[in-house]
Amino acid sequence: MLGRVLEEIEVNVLASQAWELYRTLQLAKFIGEELPNVIEKIDVIQGDGGVGTILNIIFPPGTPGFSSYKEKFTKVDDKKRVKETEVVEGGYLDFGFSLFRVRLEIIEKGEESCITGSTIEYEVKEDAAAATNANASSMVSIQPLVMIMEAASNYLMNLKNNKNKM
After folding, report:
1. Residue 152 to residues 28, 35, 93, 98, Cα–Cα distance (Å)
2. Share of the chain above pLDDT 90, in %
3. Is 83 a residue of the active site?
4. What domain range includes position 55?
5. Distance from C-alpha of 40 to C-alpha of 3, rounded to nearest angstrom
6. 48-59 pLDDT tens trace
7. Which of 9, 74, 148, 160 has the greatest count of CB atoms below 10 A from its CB?
8. Cα-atom radius of gyration of the chain, to the nearest Å?
9. CATH number of the domain enclosing 50
């Protein structure tokens, strides 16, 4: 069973400024500090933010589903402003998913605006879906990524506004 969900948000900053935040480990640090109700902690297991970087994502106690998983950066394309991660241990994989990929994308819209997009692509093993009698797509929610994009948008706008005041 294959699935895909996506969401986009317009941000009134240069695409290059948004990409500066999204492409690096600064995004992980930002999420850990600004959204503890979504993600309690992000530990860098290996890497410097490029392809091959592995993060351990830890969720707050009481979060439905699972407490953590490890994800690996599989693509960081500075030209297209696309970053992809895949769950490599725990989390969705423990529930019968064979693939759980998140794509973050920054699309230039105009001189002073861009679109931040998040896409989740997933695949569930047929035998796992049948065995649990569960609808795997009900486990997949774009909402945490929307919250991250909104918080990142506010952060970027504050940076822009503070820079303009100087």
Report:
1. 11, 10, 28, 29
2. 70
3. yes
4. 2-165
5. 27
6. 999 999 999 999
7. 148
8. 16
9. 3.30.530.20
Domain count, the chain: 1
Catalytic residue among 29, 72, 80, 83: 83
Annotate the chain with three-state secondary structure. CEEEEEEEEEECCCHHHHHHHHCCCHHHHHHHHHCCCCCCEEEEEECCCCCCCEEEEECCCCCCCCCEEEEEEEEEECCCCEEEEEEEEEHHHHHCEEEEEEEEEEEEEECCEEEEEEEEEEEECHHHHHHHCCCHHHHCCCHHHHHHHHHHHHHHHHHHHHHHHC
Backbone phi, psi, residue 4, to 5°: -155, 135
Q: Are 140 and 3 in contact (CB under 8 A)?
A: yes
